[in-house]
Amino acid sequence: MKEVLVIGSGIAGLSCAIRCAENNVRVILVSPQPSERAQSVMAAGGINAVTMQCDECDSVSSHIEDTLRGGSWIAGKNAVTGLCSQAQDIIKYLEHIGTVFSIDSQGQPRRRAFGGQSHKRTYFCGSSTGKQIVSALVMEARRFEAAGLITRKLHTHFHSALIKDGMCYGVLLFDELKRTLTPFYASAVVMATGGQNALFGKTTGSILCDGYAAGRLFMQGALLKNLEFIQFHPTTLETDQKRMLITEAARGEGGRLFYEEGGRRVYFMEDKFGANGNLMTRDIVSREIYATNREVFLDVSFLGDRLIAERLQEVCDLCLKYRGIDICTQPIPVAPSVHFFMGGLAVHLNHETNIERLYAVGECASMYHGANRLGGNSLLAALYGGVVAADDLCQRTAPPHCPSFAQFIAHEERHLAAHLDSKSLFPVTYIRDMLADTMHDCMGIVRTEEGLTEGIDAVEYYQSIAEHLRYDSSVSMYANYSLTGILATAHASLSCALARNESRGAHYRDDAPQSKDGYAYATLVSYDDGAYRTWLDKEQAYES
Ligand SMILES: Cc1cc2nc3c(=O)[nH]c(=O)nc-3n(C[C@H](O)[C@H](O)[C@H](O)COP(=O)(O)OP(=O)(O)OC[C@H]3O[C@@H](n4cnc5c(N)ncnc54)[C@H](O)[C@@H]3O)c2cc1C
Fold first, then answer.
1. Is the pLDDT of residue 400 over 80?
2. 194 alpha carbon to ligand 1 midpoint, in Å?
3. Whole-structure pTM value
4. Which of 41, 414, 423, 493 lies 20 to 30 Å (CA to CA) from residue 229?
5. Distance from the CA of 397 to the center of ligand 1, in angstroms?
6. 405-517 maps to CATH 1.20.58.100
């Protein structure tokens, strides 16, 4: 019987594993933490779909157009068409497995407006859409677990892939408890490891998503795509631990952004863009907030206690808990922060990377969002991508024979052991903190050639010392060995941003503030023995 490895158990990994099991293919689902700890559970705002219950004038083609426009026309049209066309069935499936979407007094599903959308088409479950979807998928996965089709493997990290002559035969997994590497062979490997938050330290997302897996695969020959497109969410709240997301739903429900000048409120988004100004796409709102150079606030108090309690309870709780702010009477101080990565592993329409039998789904893959993602589209993309990959790989036969990886495995084991003995003065946490500062300074909302070049120089310096780091026992062994892959992802991101000498979507260059026709393509980046090469995907090999 065929066996598939799915690495990462957020919504994308669960979706893929369940679909494989439905096709009677055995799956090993690998993650360091249970699904309930994946970043997916943080999703609060909702999931987009045009269904029979939507406004009469809304349509799938309008969802497609909003998505392509939001992504500044560089997402693949075929991919986006598939995504939006299947959205209604995905909502039906989620309801079928027990996801309870919010309804109004007539029993009709509530939908909200998200930035950049022409109609209200975002379904939600109170303030806990991600949690509810994960719970329903986990219950479904357990059913297949009981039938012996899904095996969940916890406390385990992806270490590296077993690749020969452009084909993936399995992976080396790192067991966090035993601190050992073990090879696992499979007829296909699906990466579902999420975004690259660790590059920036404090973000709205989970530190479990660190960009290591993508970086390590990149060093092993996988292509990365569109890494310059990093979404800054315009409304986040500063706390000691992280940037807490103030969901876009707060603006979707009518929340207004303002700053104070001479004792009066300036509603700068409405002044510049009209009545819908607060709901412009995230890249635009983030840049406008940045440009005010002032403390900006979000006011929802006028919505009233009842509506706030009904639809924005989570925002209410987190503002009170972390900052003592009562949003029913006080405005919320907000600032943009890193939130989502449009870029990731380059995949074809079937979600296979340039390495045969290696797939990528969810936020670790780059496919549907172009230069900027619309709120509510990534949960949809994670669910849909998982199904597309599963349907494709389930049709394939197992590879005819598996070559020996003994030499590679011995080399990786020696490398891991040598790491433990290293005598360098720098602990890994120090480099990680330095990297986060570099990325915030050089890959922020506004970029320049000079800043990006400085960023690359800095990362190259960190890379030169990373091989000789002192083992840092204050963090896990994984946190120690993963630094090299994280640095490769950071270098690749800076290289993509430097190569894109224009502004588009979430990528804004102060020294090239306009979009240029010649750049209306995705960026690809490859790694060859320490050399980073970028080019525009003019043939659209990875887009449609
Ligand atoms: C605060 C917040 C709110 C959001 N709200 C919304 C919303 O309302 N609507 C929407 O559409 N999107 C939203 N998003 C985005 C959306 O939640 C994510 O894009 C989506 O959930 C990603 O799912 P995923 O399965 O790809 O990744 P994740 O859920 O991040 O799962 C990644 C998995 O990979 C595992 N993993 C990571 N590294 C390794 C490794 N080396 N080895 C093994 N396993 C590994 C992790 O442990 C985890 O299990 C939000 C994001 C944030 C941060």
1. no
2. 5
3. 0.95
4. 41
5. 30
6. yes
